[in-house]
Every structure is written in structure tokens, then in C-alpha cells.
Amino acid sequence: MESKKRLFSIVEWFVILLLIVFLFLLAIKTRDKLSAVKDMVSMEESKLVLYQGPKSLRDATKEDLKAAKEKDRDFSLLHCTDTIVKVNGYDSYVYDTNVNHSRTWATDYMPVQSRTPITYFDFQGQANIEVTVEDIELASVKISPQSIELEPLIDRDNNKVSFTITEPGNYTVTFNDSPARALHIFANPLETNVPSPEDEGVVFIGPGEWNIESIMLEDNQTLYISGGAVIHGVVNADHAKNVKVLGRGIIDGSGYKTWGGSSAHIPLKFDNCNNVELRDVIVLNPNAWVLNSLSTKNEIIDGVRIISSRPNGDGITLQSCENVTVENCFVRSWDDSLVVKNYVGDSKNIIFKNNQLWTDFAQSMEIGFETNKGNKKEAIISDITFEDIIVLNNFHKPVISLHNGDDALIKDIVFKNITVENAQMGSGDGDVMPYLIDLYITENPNWSTSKDRGQIRNVLIDGVTVLAGKFAPSRIEGYDEAHTVEDVTIRNVEILGDKIRSFEQGKFQIDTESTKNLVIE
Predict the structure, then answer these.
(1) What domain range is 298 assigned to?
(2) Could you tell me which residues are beta bridge partners of residue 475?
(3) Beta-sheet strands, E only, within 239-364
(4) Could you tell me if residue 362 is inside a domain?
(5) Same-domain check for residues 102 and 139
(6) C-alpha count within 13 angstroms, C-beta hemisphere, residue 406
(7) d(Cα 475, Cα 511) in Å, to the nearest integer?
(8) pTM of the prediction?
(9) I need a labelling partner for 224 at 20 to 30 A (CA). Which of 137, 321, 490, 494 fits?
(10) Is-contact 457 494, C-beta < 8 A?
């Protein structure tokens, strides 16, 4: 009898154990189903808009991808064929544009150039991105900005990378820690308030490839460039008010020969204008400067994407402008990325905020050298702010620079929350100014106009983080005892994991005779 009870007890416990295991497995399966349902709901809530590129663009061949001078190969914007991008399972059209990996000035204006892929789309919710790079053996993959902390899934056997984004923005995928063939992804929010072709004052350009040569905007006009459109030419305005350039399309300058000191075809140029709005367009292959405003007031530059590769390919240049906001932009340039200069009058109240930079050549954030090209009496550059700037790569000269090459007073300047993901200052002929921070008063035969020198006053640099690359020196130097750099506060600087608490630790080169009231915290 006892043995029967014992046997029953064992069987009973065995059944209970099986039941527990069953319930556990059921819970896991239920969790996975709920997770799948959650993903499904998320996908159902997501929206995606893709733009087919012009069918007239030629497919890039392996020959097109070889590094060469502009005169030795086709410089056109092409359809990329070696990088395939899928978003939520759908093909996203990829363009092949020109970039420049040389770090030395080309006196013939013909540096050796390469190519890199870009793609763009609009979305809301979630975008699952899969990238296939047929000709790259994947050892490592980095997605920038690194602050997003995206961990890519790498399929080395099939040369694939996949990751998910939930916020619109500018993303760069770098393969094997090399700038070569880095993929730029411009993920826009869904487009709203699209103008109609019938609206008064609207110049509407639909999808396709268009040779426009030049569009001159007049008062109260809006140029709208549709997603999927590529226009070859320039957009200008002079002494106009209330003008806009909007849309998802591309302005391409590859048809123009390199500037070479003769004729600059500036894709976006606004002189002596008031109330200017530029949003979301992409600018590729300019033959010189890219976005240039001269003596313009009350301007908004928001979400513009720029890639330049030719000499004098400055990204966004503001000359004697007032009340300008530049935000949410991506600038990859072969010359200064963000620039403020005095050409005719003063410059004041300019804010650069939440921008991403990739500076292949020259400086990332520059004031100068031309600070009084018009020889104005008591010229001033004041109230300029660079805030929340991410520098993906800086290969050549300083990241942060005030270069007073004339007799202006530069004052009330702020650099705040600057992150440098890869600091490579001093590459190529950038060894003449291999600095992280450079505050400098000088006379330069290339850029100085005035006979006298100027001043630099009241500069705040608050929050500079260098994540990788070189521990570069910095410089603070006036011209002489009468032309000085004064009242500079530097704090919250971290270089390669080291918190900088002294000028000596930060490798600052300071001229004590021409500087006063320098503080580092």
C-alpha cells in the first residue's frame, strides 16, 4: 500500500513538472507572439515614402568608381550599382556622387576624386534598413552619429548590414573604418505643406532630370523641387524678399567645369535678400562654393544636405549676414564646412545648431579669414553661436577656428556641445594648422585686405568631446600687444577619454604677450 502511494506521489509530481514546463514554454511562445504583434503594430503605424531616381541617370560602372581627376573620367551624377539599400523590404534608389579624399591643395584645381553612395527617403515610425555592399568584405561597420548608439547586424557571408532607425535624421554608414564608399542616408520626416503647381508664386519642378541652367527667384516666389527630381543648374536671388527653396530633390552641378579661379556656379546664392527660407534640398557636385549668402537678413536654412568635392567647395558661407539660423543640416565639404565672413558690412546674430559635418579639407567651423574685406570702419562680427554640432570626420585643419585676418572686432562667440567622432587634423598639407581649437589674429597675403589688425573678445567654448583619432594641439595667439585675444573661457573639454583641466594638459600653444584673461575649467 505504501509503495502504491509513493508511486502515485512520484507520478503526481512528474505530471506537475510537465505542467510547469508546458506553462513556461507557453509563456515564452505567448511573449514572442506579443512581441511579433507589437512589431506588426509598429510596422502598421510606420509610413514610408521612397523616391525613384531619374531613369536617364546612367548606371555607375567599376571604371566610374576609380579615383581620378575630373578631366580624366565622367564626373556626372550616376545611379549607384554596387550598394543596394532596402527600407522595410523595398528598394531605395541610390545615387553615386563625387567626394574627395585628397588632403592637399591642387594648384591645377584638379585633385584626384572618388565616389560615394547616397540615398534618401521619408518615413514615420520605424525604418528597417538593409545595406548590401557587394565589393566590400565587412570587418567592421560604424553608424554615425554614434550618439544614437545603433548596433548594426553584420552578415559577413552576404556582405550585408542591417539596422533600424526610429527618428528622422542624417545617418552615415562607414565600412572597415575607412572613409571610402561610406554610405550617406538622408532619412526625412514625412513631407507636409507641399505647394501646388497652381499656387501663385510657385515654381514647381516634378520628378525627373532637368537642365535648368539658372533660376532667378523674385519677391514672394517659392521654388519647389520634388523628391525624385535632379536639376542641373543654379538657383539665385538678388535684392529679393520672401523667397523659398523647398523639397526633397537634388541640385547637381556636375556639368560645370571646376572653378579654377574663373567662373563659380554657386548652386544656392542669395545676395542682399530679406526673409529667405531653404529647406531639405540636397546639393551635390558644385564647381566651387555651395550655399552662399551675402548681405542677407532673416534667413532660415533647415535640413539642407550638401556634399562638395572640388576646390573652394565651402559648404554654408554667410558673408555680412544678420539674423540667420542654420539647423539640422548635413555638410560634407572639400573646404570650410560652416563659415562666417565680413565682405561688405557686419555679421551678427547667426546660429548654427544641430548640424552634422564631415570636413575633408580645411576647417569645420570657421570665422574668417576675411573679416573686413570691404574695409568698413569699425567692422564687427558678433553674436555667433555654434551649438550641438557633430563632426563625423575632420581631416585637415582646425575643428573650431577664429581667424581674424583683417581689422575687425570679433566678439561674443559661443561654441557649445561640439562632438568630434574622428579627429585627424594635420593630414596632408594641413600640418600648417593641425589644431583642434585655433583662435588667431594674423595678416595673410591670400585673404587679408585691411592694413591694420583686429581684436578677438569674449569667446566661450563649452563642451568639446573628441571620441577618436588624434590628440591634436590647440592655439591661442594674437598679433601683438595691441591686437589681442582676450576673455576666453574654455570648459568641459574631453579628448580621447581625458578630461582637460589645464592648458598644458590640452596641448595649448599660447602667446602670452598677445593674449589676456584666458581661463580653462
Answers:
(1) 232-319
(2) 438, 509
(3) 241-247, 250-252, 268-271, 274-279, 282-284, 291-294, 297-302, 305-307, 316-319, 322-327, 330-334, 338-341, 347-361
(4) no
(5) yes
(6) 28
(7) 8
(8) 0.91
(9) 321
(10) no
